[in-house]
Amino acid sequence: MSGRFAEWVSTADAVRATTKKLEKNRLLGAYLARLEDADLVIAARLFAGAPFPRKDERVLSVGWSALSDVLLERSGKSGDDMRASYQRHADLGDVAHDLIAGSAHEGEPLTLADVAASFDGIAAVRGTNNKRELVRALLRRADSGEARYIVKIVSGETRIGLREGLLVDAIAKGFERDRETVARANMLTGDIGEAALRAKHGTLGEPTLAHFSPIGMMLATPVLDLAEVAQRFPPPYVVEDKYDGVRAQVHKAGDRVELYSRTFDRVTSRYPELLDTLRAIPGSFVLDAEVLAFEADRAVPFTTFQTRLGRKDVTGEVRERLPASLVVFDLLERDGTALLDLPLTERHVRLRALPLEGPLRLARQTTLDATGDDLVAALDREFLASRERGNEGLMVKDPRSPYRPGRRGMEWLKVKRALRTLDVVVTAVEWGHGKRHGVLSDYTFSVRDGDRLRVVGKAYSGLTDKEIAEMTEHFLATTTQDLGRARIVRPDTVIEVAFDQIQQSERHDSGYAMRFPRIVRLRPDKPVQEIDTLDTVRAIAKGEREAPS
Ligand code: AMP
After folding, report:
1. Which of 62, 80, 134, 251 is buried most deeply by CB count within 10 Å?
2. Domain boundary among 353, 385, 415
3. Is residue 290 within 6 Å of ligand 1 at its C-beta?
4. Distance from CA of residue 319 to its chain's centroid?
């Protein structure tokens, strides 16, 4: 025998009647713990104040006027009575309670299953009259206390006074489970009823993620310079291009494919050209990805792509001019199993097994296992390469990290500040230390000042061991003055140097010094006559002084 709706109502009333959180908790928990499985699911969903679970997109669509017609009929009261009551309560549910009080109800007492079945029916039928008929039949069987909550839920006007957090607390208490696990199951299943059932059966940890119920997207923390990356977590580092488009969470199950935005809006119809290919991938999945356009393998700037975003109807002309591609960087669910708790590298292994073709591609990804200056130099190279592909910068991710929905933490870092670089010429070199012992690995470099060269900085080499060995030979052959530790060399080696800031300083004869200079690469393609000048250095330093910090 299914649970009485009247019992649910008296619990809801008792919870409303007390302001004490612990007491609310106890009342709810004790009630839920008494219920059979099917009733538990329904009861928890109704406490959340909605006819259907969050993952369910059905709506009742019963208009205000249909609802008030039914109420007047059910109660035998007048429109004036109703207006007066509404002025007092400002809530249609309380008005229903008020108007119906004392009038007899018909038929068998309502069960939780009856209420749920009525809501299913109301959502399924089309047309105001049909819906009104079903609401009428439901309210005929309800007493005034029951009518209050039915009307609150149908009108969707107010919540029934229970925040979801409170419900999660009560479920945790009622079944003696950990609160966080209940909250997480609620988020992943998109259904507080399902979470309650799992709490009851001790299966909260079973990893499933509901399809077509988007979850929060994991967010990244910006780093100001590349040297900061090493402070956030130890190597190795997963480095991806940061694509400058629109974030999308893609859900696929059966023949259905949907794309959701960061704000959980369904945006599927904006990108019709992606759907067939996504649908063709066997099985179910949830992807984390970025939508953007490419032209000959280079990303189209966001400002250009943006011109198609506002449109509801994506015409053939727009699709031809700016065809959307989906760059996938994470896999959150596959064939019924949630992958959120797996480390990033494991999720990527599964992601790479997906057949992505046509407009679907895998995000560009490498792993850097370096520290100190080597790491900074490698990140520099990746950053510049990403910019050259038309992308915004880099995402640096911790390979050990799980996917944390909606969280902004230190496990995903974003590097998008345009790096400053200067092309300079090497004017002096020094023997290295430690593992760079025996090679000329520390370079002093200069910019042009008319027909003179002026030193602006000194950096350890960010070059590969092979390049350093070649450079050592070259500098030994081009030394013009041997000073022991250091050597003055013929100024013929052009390198590109990145830095965080450039400031006035007495340290070098140019009158400027760089903060965190890093050698990005050799520039054998560039003649010394074309390196950057002291005027450029001056302009950058001036710009930095004036830029708001
Ligand atoms: P921002 O919008 O500047 O806070 O940067 C974070 C955004 O970068 C994310 O929300 C994604 O839309 C986007 N993004 C681009 N490429 C990636 C990637 N490889 N991994 C994660 N997010 C990315």
Report:
1. 251
2. 415
3. yes
4. 26
Interaxial angle between packed helices 112-124 and 37-47, expressed in degrees from 0 to 180 and rounded to the nearest 10:
60
Percent of the chain's residues with pLDDT above 90 = 70
Residue 161 lies inside a defined structural domain of this protein? no
Give the pLDDT confidence of 470-511 residue by residue, as tens digits: 999 999 999 999 999 999 999 999 999 988 778 899 999 999
306 CA from centroid of ligand 1 (Å): 16
Rounded to the nearest angstrom, the distance between the alpha carbon of 370 and the centre of ligand 1 is 23
107/146 same-domain check? yes
Is the pLDDT reported for residue 40 higher than 60? yes
| String of DSSP letters for 155-182 | HT-S--S--HHHHHHHHHHHTT--HHHH
Other Cβ atoms closer than 10 A to 322: 19
Q: Are residues 424 and 508 in the same domain?
A: yes
Number of domains in the chain: 3
Q: What dihedral do alpha carbons 306, 307, 311, 314 form, nearest 10°?
A: -100
**What is the distance of C-alpha 453 from the center of its chain?**
49
- Provide the CA 165 distance to its chain's centre, in angstroms: 22
Containing H/E element for 238? strand 237-242
The one-letter code for the residue type at 547 is A
Phi-psi region of 212 (alpha: psi -120 to 50; beta: other; left: phi over 0): left
Interior/surface letters 246-260, b for 16+ CB within 10 angstroms, e for the rest = bebbbbbbeeebbbb
Residue 402, token pair as written in the block: 């799980």
Does residue 32 contact residue 43 with C-beta atoms inside 8 Å? yes
**Any idea how long the chain is?**
549
The answer to whether the CB of 326 is under 6 A from ligand 1 is no
Region 368-375 average pLDDT: 92
pLDDT of residue 167: 94
Residue 549 has pLDDT above 60, yes or no: no
Beta bridge pairs of residue 250:
259, 287
The catalytic residues are 242
pLDDT of residue 480: 94
Q: Which atom of ligand 1 is closest in space to residue 262's alpha carbon? A: 10
For residue 355, how many C-alpha atoms fall within 13 Å in the half-sphere facing its CB? 7
The percent of residues above 70 in pLDDT, for the chain, comes to: 96
Block residue for tokens 């992807």: 287
CATH number at residue 22: 1.10.3260.10
Burial of 459 (0-12, 13-18, 19+ CB in 10 A): buried
What CATH number is attached to the domain comprising 331?
A: 3.30.470.30
What single-letter amino acid sits at 389? R
Neighbours of 491 (CB within 10 A): 19
Q: What domain range is 475 assigned to?
A: 420-546
Kindly state the DSSP code that residue 507 receives in the 8-state scheme: S
The closest of 21, 366, 11, 53 to 173, measured between CA atoms, is 21
Regarding the beta carbon of 417 and ligand 1, being less than 6 Å apart is answered no
Does the structure show a pLDDT above 80 at 547? no
